[in-house]
Amino acid sequence: MSPAPPAGRGRGSDGDPLERVSREALRPYYLLYGEESFLVERALDVLRGRLLVPGRPGTRRTLWGDEDAGRLAAALADLASPPLFGGSQVLVVRRADALRDEAEARVLEALPTLGPGGTLVLVARVADQRRRLAAACIRGGAAYGFGRVDDRGAAGWVVRLARERGVDIAPAATQELLDRSGIDLAVLAGEIDKLALHAGQGARIEPTHVRSIVAAVRQHAVEDLTAHLARRNAAGAARALRLLLAEGEPPVRLVAFLGANFRRALHVAELSEAGVSQAEIAARLRMPPWLVTRIAGQGRAADLERSLHVLRRLDVELKSTRPAEAVFEAAVLEIALGGR
Q: Is residue 5 assigned to a domain?
């Protein structure tokens, strides 16, 4: 068996995991997973709001999958027992894909014992069906996957987030924001918060608002960093990274732009290695021929895939409590040095 495919690609409630979490009957356990951490966290917030109603008794607890198994066992036992003063109990286990075999077995044993008033929420990066716990959640219909959004999906979320903040946003302003900030939803949400405050309740965000509030990514410097990585120039890549961070470039946004550059290079490399001419590549990918020529030598498809894997891991690490500069530089060096 292979890892579960990303969810949310269809239409209606069947294809929208966030809609399902919001509207389906409550379950005794959930698995929230995927690379789009902003949506995973949003789904978790939705569940908390449904399970722990303000003004009513209720408790919540958070553990981590790589913690001591004894703590998890005690928390699961508490979850299966009604609290002294009544009310709902919610146990959130983050990094559930890091559970060791013993801990995973305890969770599997606990699933059938969970009932009204006690809910287990597992949060993971991936849902690998080769793991018994993930497979059980998928079979039970309790797994909700949140794959990364594309440009179109990000544009839709910009409009949605703006409306949630009581403002409208012009299509041109949406595109300007995406051009400046990329498609990372957490970054976009932060920028929309600032834009909504600047424009005022009930206003319409225009491109002029975006240009005055949202700093554009230092595109030339990002391209420079990408070029150093493509040439396996570790020293040059480290210098370019330090310059970008010193100038205040948000690390999460920088990862998003690097990822976009590497994905574009991967598409070109895959077609090139399949024998497709540069002219045909330009037509298929709707790129100007000069751009295809420029990025055609940025690496083999296999190397670019490995680089994207490093960037995906870095994205998770940057959203934890680890020092941004240190983990970013380690990832850059890993990409630049390759298998050496």
A: no
Domain count across the chain: 3
Question: Is there a contact between 153 and 188 (Cβ–Cβ < 8 Å)?
Answer: no
Residues lower than pLDDT 70 in the chain: 1-14, 83-86, 216-219, 321-322, 339-340
- 298 in Cβ contact with 230 (< 8 Å): yes
- CA dist 90 and 103 (Å) reads 18
Integer Cα distance of 184 and 187 in angstroms: 5
pTM for the predicted model, two decimal places = 0.66
* Residues 21 and 135 occupy one common structural domain: yes
Half-sphere exposure of 322 (CA within 13 A, CB side): 16
Q: 30-40: per-residue pLDDT in tens?
A: 999 998 888 99
DSSP, collapsed to helix, strand or coil, labels residue 43 as helix
- Asked if 216 and 191 touch (Cβ cutoff 8 Å), the reply is no
Cα distance between residue 216 and residue 148, in whole Å: 22
**Terminal-to-terminal C-alpha distance of the chain:** 32
DSSP structure string for 50-73: HHS-TTS-EEEEEEETTS-HHHHH
Question: How far is residue 103 from each of residues 9, 70, 286, measured CA to CA in Å?
Answer: 32, 8, 49
pLDDT digits (tens, 9 = 90+) for 229-248: 988 889 889 988 998 888 78
246 domain residue, yes or no: yes
Residue 202 and residue 130 share a domain? no
Q: Are 42 and 75 found together in one domain?
A: yes
Q: Is 154 exposed, middle or buried (0-12, 13-18, 19+ CB in 10 A)?
A: buried
